[in-house]
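Render this sequence as a predicted structure.
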Amino acid sequence: MTAFPNLPSARSCLLLVLLLFALSGCAAFRSYNAELTETINLAASGNPGAAAAALQKSHRRKRDLLYYLELGELQRLDGRFEDSQKAWLDADKAVQAWEETAKVNPGKLLGGAAGFVLNEKLGTYEGHDYEKVMLTTRMALNHLARGDWDTARVDIKRTHERETVIENLRALEIEKTEQEATKRGAKTAFKDLNGYPVQTIDNPEVNALRNSYQSAFSHYLSGFVYEALGEPSLAAPGYRKAIELHPDNPILEEALSGLDARGGGGDGKTDVLFVIESGTAPARVSQQINLPIPYNNKLLFVPVSFPVIRQEDPGTLPSAIRMGGSTATPTVVTSVDAMARRSLQEEMPRIMLRGIIRSTAKAALQYEAFRQDETGLAGIAVILGSILTESADERGWRTLPAQIAIARARVTTGTPYLEVDTPSGTQRIALTATGRYQVIALRMLRGRLFVMPPPGPPGDKPEQQASTPSTPQTFLAATR
């Protein structure tokens, strides 16, 4: 076992623990999930503006990547697409800086395996891989909601580039983690972690994913945008990739097989893509597990916390959408819930390695405290301090939807409304089908339906786009 030559005295141990108790009240030790509960409840009640205000109030001191991710989502629900895009641009600056470092100096991001001695929450939040990719995808949706198809195309291209950066960095990280674990004789297989709910991140749905950051929805959306902009040669790879990520899905396969037949337009129809989202992304909660750590021929039990995915309600999708005599059935093509679980599965080896290294240091401190203080008070204080400060990082983009479905229909241009079949009945929404292609976004958040209509299709004149309402309509669609 590695020696720790500069361990503090018994008196220093007591002072250290007092400091840890003081630190326990700071932001680094708060529960992010608990903080987001009020925010999500306000949004689900139909008041995303108040939810954004609550988020801003709770982040007065520190506004980081995660703050801007959440804020942009809430403002999007509120129909404030300009504000939402500003927030997401701030978030994207942080992710772009991360990307640049990943390209030129990946070792800096991989860092030391020791992590943080006290608590991983003290580290800068870099975002989970699926969040980085979802950011540019949702920025593209914002551009489509404002009728800016060309800029949506730019964000779609950046989504693909971001996936490549993530893929390359994670390959290096796996190699480095394995090397470090071998050198230290540490086990990093979460399946061997007694007391950990393995089934939450190791199940058929999660394991069916190719990785945690590529989604069928993102690639289908790229295909649709390229098709709308008259670039079928680029649309086909997008549809094809979506099929690879979610095979045997008829709506994805039809998009590719019918691509040539749909070209040309001019038949008085609008090709409408409905993007239907429900629920919220799952929460990470901290679970402590006592690990046996050998030190100086003694077996000491040290608490180590690991993040666990908590089961969330994925929400309820509409059973059908009708517009202009056409009926479409939503089909789930991406589970953000499953992506979040796969992300944690991929992160667990390095989380475990850092936890083992951290617990070894705490075991050494505990041993020396008992050895130097005959009363045992210093040792007990160290144990209490370890329990108090040991908490897993619970941070994550919680306002993302749990699942994303799509539906597609050719609708008579000029149709003035759509109907959405919800568990509590049919909602009729004033929204006109315009242009050759259109994207309409809907979000089911607990008992409420948000509809975010676009201002116009590609090719519309600015005055035509400005005449269409941009504020989303909300409906009480169900109660539970």
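Summary. Residues 1-5, 459-470, 475-480 have pLDDT under 50 and may be disordered. The two ends are 54 Å apart (CA to CA).
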